[in-house]
Design brief:
The protein is an alpha/beta fold and 778 residues long. It has 32 helices and 21 strands. The relative contact order is 0.10. The chain binds a DNA duplex (15 and 10 nucleotides) through α4, α5, α11 and α28.
DNA sequence: TTGGGGGCAATTTTT
DNA sequence: TTGCCCCCAA
């Protein structure tokens, strides 16, 4: 039987409540009721550091909300409790549940970023900021990086903006300043990035803007350097809780630490096995060494799982034990045994989608609701085959992704006007709106304005430059256009003291945006609808925050993420990435593309054990989302980036408990072979006849090949031969403990990557091939 | 100033 | 294969 609350992370609580014959609503005196031993221990903990290691599906939210409620009704006032989460969703959920427990809405529940944004507004002087700073989002940040690249006059040959952005963000997460980066730079590239980072910071400062990382970084620095303020805050927040502690980065770690330095009442919850944001700067060591950081810490494990069947849990548990970086934890459940976890081998990605969709059809015909079914992918690009086939099967589906509401063009456009009203230094916003809607101010005019601003001393911000249009020396037409734009901005500047809704509506009409939207509404009504939605959002904000200012509203919108997940599609199959799946649960789960290189995702040149462990955790997270039915699939051939390649099943599959798994697919023999030859890898009796593919190995299915005997002679630039693709040059080679990877560029320019053991490549000596018309580009 | 076409890269993305 | 970005033509 499948219930209909799969989307609701609170299902668990409902189940728990049910199993203990309690109401959903607990009077304060009942906060200890119906708890298991470890749960009770956590709920009743009061003073000192505490680590709650909460396994997947073990009832964590229930525990922390009850503890907060208990604190708030005994030793503390609600406003003396600070609960920090990572997502708005988690924050809202906690607020709601605390409310349900009768604690009121005075408890401080907020995301890291929202908490910091507010703190920095209030204590802007101490932090060396202006009160009206704006928050640069990802696209603003990208523009600023491009600008910085230009100013640094660096040939962007091997430095994409994305790469720079990543490096800067990582540095900030680790609390590394531009100076420190320059000092410790190893190699030319690092120095370049250090220089760009420096300029990037200058631009942000000049624009009176902070990016997301700054919110954390500046707060951490402020709390570290300003002991007086730190102390006041510590007095104010006598009990601090940090959720998803395994995902904290250095800055967040510091914030939590500084806020609790003296009273030590830091209660953290998390699960190292679900740490999947290392690539975003999160440091799993924060949770792993909590007990070292806080020697008097108490640790409690929640190991009983209320979500999945025994078999699903056994498979996931076995997988995760392969990780070294973890805290020993043994999940168990009282739930039914359930059906075996299935692993399906498919011929290619279309067969994979077909097989999954067929299975879904069967489930639906048995009365399972579409919303109880989820398909998890490692990368969004994999969703396509599934979309197509779900569509043609007439099964409603939705993709939990897409452009976040506040990242849409039309939304960003209006908000840019408002941001400029609040913060006249916000050049990125000005540049965005100067010709939106089009008003005859093109690139050339903008360049003139910029040049004028830069040439002035001190350097002007663009808004000031616009207002001094007469001094720029523009052609008559451009001069006229800029004049009316300048007048428009003056008019808008006078709006700033009114409500969010009023300001928004005025801006929409004065700027001409509304007229523009109305005009295009015939062709595409969506932008207009989005704007209408924005107006009601503003209106709602005004109602909820009678004392709120435009600035508050802008901050609010800046920190709001993608809400796609929260709304809509109550009867659709959900397609989402494994990352997006964290925290959710579904009765039926399909995990797609469990192949080497995809899951684990391998990037060349950077395969180390940490990455693999995070990938393993990602699969673990995916598997533990499933309540009743779990299916993993992989395809022998996969079309990706417009190219079909032969794949190798993921080594993670070898790490599952073989005998508990139901192995399905065109070829039945492969898994049996697995059991015989251990994890060394093996082929399967291939029904497909593809040249060069490893699925073509004749039986008996031994490992495809070992390393080539002359491996020591392989080096970058070596010439190799592939049976299907011909001659190529080795452009990447990395030797790992278990597998070696190679990348080859072929004569026609195609580049392919393989695991060397399976690649069927042979090194050839240069003089053997000179007569084969090898191009000179080699 | 706008649009279209070619070139090129291509994870994950709580905020 | 798709999607973004940049440059060029009208």
């Amino acid at each position: 039987m499948i219930d209909d609350t799969s989307f609701d992370p609170e299902t668990l609580d409902a189940e728990l409540a049910e199993s203990h014959s309690h109401q959903a609503q607990y009077p304060a005196t009942d906060l200890r009721a119906g708890l298991t031993e470890p749960q009770l221990e956590a709920v009743t903990h009061i003073n000192g550091p505490f680590l709650l290691l909460a396994g997947a599906g073990a009832g964590k939210t229930r525990v922390i909300t009850r503890r907060a409620a208990l604190l708030a009704t005994t030793v503390a006032k609600p406003w003396e409790i600070l609960a920090i989460t990572f997502t708005n969703k988690a924050a809202n959920e906690m607020k709601e549940r605390v409310l349900t427990l009768g604690i009121g809405d005075k408890m401080n529940v907020s995301t890291f970023h929202a908490f910091c944004a507010k703190l920095l507004r209030i204590h802007h002087t101490e932090a060396g900021l202006q009160h009206n700073y704006t928050i640069a989002d990802q696209s603003d940040r990208k523009k600023i990086i491009k600008e910085a690249l230009q100013r640094a006059e660096i040939s962007t040959a091997n430095l994409t903006p994305a790469k720079v952005e990543f490096r800067i963000s990582s540095a900030k997460s680790d609390m590394i300043s531009p100076e420190a980066m320059l000092q410790n730079a190893e190699g030319h590239n690092d120095r370049l990035i250090g220089r760009i980072y420096t300029i990037y910071e200058e631009i942000l400062t000049h624009q009176n803007a902070l990016d997301f990382d700054d919110l954390l970084l500046k707060t951490a620095t402020l709390l570290t350097e300003n002991d007086d303020l730190r102390r006041r805050l510590e007095n104010q927040y006598r009990y601090v809780l940090v959720d998803e502690y395994q995902d904290t980065n250095e800055a967040q770690y510091r914030i939590a630490h500084q806020l609790t330095r003296e009273h030590g009442n830091l209660f953290v919850t998390g699960d190292p096995d679900q740490a999947i944001y290392g690539w975003r700067g999160a440091n799993i060591q924060n949770i792993l060494s909590f007990e070292k950081d806080y020697p008097n810490a108490k640790t409690v494990r929640l190991e009983q799982n209320y979500r999945s069947t025994k078999r699903i849990l056994a498979a996931a548990s076995q997988l995760i034990t392969a990780n070294i970086d973890r805290k020993e934890k043994t999940l168990w459940t009282d739930n039914e045994q359930g059906d075996p976890v299935r692993v399906i081998r498919c011929e290619d990605n279309n067969a994979e989608a077909a097989s999954v969709v067929t299975d879904i059809k069967t489930l639906i015909s048995q009365g399972v609701s579409e919303s109880d079914i989820a398909i998890f992918v490692r990368i969004n690009a994999l969703s396509r085959s599934f979309e197509e086939q779900l569509f043609s099967a007439g099964i409603p589906y939705r993709i939990a992704r897409g452009v976040a509401f506040y990242a849409r063009k039309e939304i960003k456009d209006v908000l840019a006007y408002l941001r400029l009203i609040i913060n006249p230094s916000d050049d990125v916003s000005l540049e965005r709106i100067i010709n939106t809607p089009t008003r005859g101010i093109g690139k050339k005019t903008i360049d003139h304005i910029k040049a004028f601003a830069n040439a002035s001393s001190p350097r002007l911000n663009l808004l000031e430059a616009v207002h001094r249009y007469e001094e720029i020396g523009l052609a008559k037409r451009a001069h006229q256009c800029l004049k009316s734009f300048s007048e428009l901005l003056h008019k808008l500047a006078e709006l700033s003291t009114t409500t969010a809704r009023h300001t928004l509506e005025q801006t929409l009409s004065l700027s001409g945006l509304m007229a523009d939207l109305n005009q295009t509404a015939d062709i595409d009504a969506e932008p207009l609808q989005n704007i209408e939605e924005l107006v009601s959002a503003a209106s709602e904000f005004d109602t909820n925050h009678p004392d709120g200012t435009i600035l508050d509203w802008l901050t609010f919108t800046s920190l709001l993420g993608d809400e796609d997940l929260l709304q809509g599609g109550t009867d659709s199959v959900t397609i989402m990435t494994l990352h997006a799946a964290k925290g959710l649960e579904f009765p039926a789960v399909y995990i797609i593309g469990v192949e080497h290189g995809l899951l684990p995702m391998i990037r060349f040149g950077s395969e180390d054990a940490d990455d693999i462990e995070e990938e393993r955790r990602l699969l673990f997270v995916g598997m533990t989302r499933a309540k009743k039915r779990l299916t993993l699939t992989f395809a022998a051939r996969r079309m990706l980036h417009g190219m079909t390649s032969t794949t190798i099943r993921s080594t993670f599959l070898d790490e599952l408990p073989h005998n508990e798994i139901q192995w399905l697919g065109d070829s039945q023999a492969w898994h049996v072979d697995q059991q015989r030859s251990g994890t060394a890898g093996g082929g399967w009796a291939g029904s497909s006849a593809r040249s060069g593919g490893i699925d073509r190995l004749p039986s008996p299915r031994k490992p495809a090949a070992g390393l080539p005997e002359d491996i020591d002679e392989w080096q970058l630039g070596s010439i190799v031969r592939h049976p299907a693709h011909g001659l190529g040059v080795l452009i990447d080679l990395s030797r790992g403990a278990r597998r070696s990877h190679v990348k080859v560029r072929f004569k026609n320019g195609m580049e392919r990557a393989w695991i060397l053991e399976f690649a069927n490549l042979h090194r050839v000596d240069f003089d053997e091939v000179t007569d084969e018309a090898f191009g000179d580009e080699w």
